[in-house]
Amino acid sequence: MKHRSLRRTLSAGQRARQELAIAETSATRDIRAFEVTRIPGLLQTPEYARSVFEANAEFRQIPRSIDEAVATRIRRIGPVQCRSRPAP
Q1: Cα–Cα dist 14/64, whole Å
Q2: What DSSP character marks residue 84?
Q3: Phi, psi angles (nearest 5°) of residue 83
Q4: What one-character DSSP code corresponds to residue 11?
Q5: pTM, entire model
């Protein structure tokens, strides 16, 4: 996602970006991620996600729609945790 597009998406708060992530995740078969500085979103607890969203809102100077963003992140995690891994 390009910077301007991300900035535009985040201008209404972080929930919109999480809704986009839900759509992307639901259409994805395999997810591979590596993050050095924080726990990947699909593995975050609600408390950790809240901390990440608060820091992100402050750093990017965007609306603090923290409760909505956390709820949407947790909704995104649900289907991923329920999927079973296919046999090798």
Answers
A1: 8
A2: P
A3: -70, 140
A4: T
A5: 0.64
* 18 SS3 class: helix
Quote the tokens at residue 33: 């991620």
The tokens describing 40, both together, are: 């990947």
Query: Can you tell me the distance from the alpha carbon of 21 to that of 23, in angstroms, rounded to the nearest whole number?
Result: 5
Amino acid identity of residue 36, one-letter, is: V
**pLDDT tens digits in sequence order for the chain, 88 residues long:** 455 677 777 777 788 888 888 888 888 888 787 778 889 888 899 999 999 999 999 998 888 889 999 999 898 887 666 555 555 5
Q: DSSP assignment of 22-71, as one string? A: HHHHHT-S------SSS--GGG--HHHHHHHHHHHHHHHT----HHHHHH
Q: Which helix (H) or strand (E) holds 72?
A: helix 66-82
CA dist 62 and 12 (Å) reads 8
